[in-house]
Amino acid sequence: MNLWQEYKRPASVAEAVQALAHAPGPALPIAGGTDLLLDLKQGRHAPVHTLVDLTSVREMTLLERRGDSLFIGAAVPVNRVALDPLTAAHAQALVEACNLIAGPQVRNTATLGGNVAHARPAADGTIALTALNAEAEVANEEGNRRIPFTALFAGPGKSAIDKTKEIIVGFHVPITNYQPFDAAQGKSPITTASCFKRIMRPQGVALPILNCAVWLAREGESVKDIRIAVGPGGSTPFRATEAETFLRGKPLVEETFNPTLDALLAQAKFRDSARRASADYRRHIVGGLFKDVLYTAWSRAG
Ligand SMILES: Cc1cc2nc3c(=O)[nH]c(=O)nc-3n(C[C@H](O)[C@H](O)[C@H](O)COP(=O)(O)OP(=O)(O)OC[C@H]3O[C@@H](n4cnc5c(N)ncnc54)[C@H](O)[C@@H]3O)c2cc1C
Question: Which CATH number fits domain 6-53: 3.10.450, 3.40.50, 3.40.190, 3.30.43?
Answer without folding.
Answer: 3.30.43
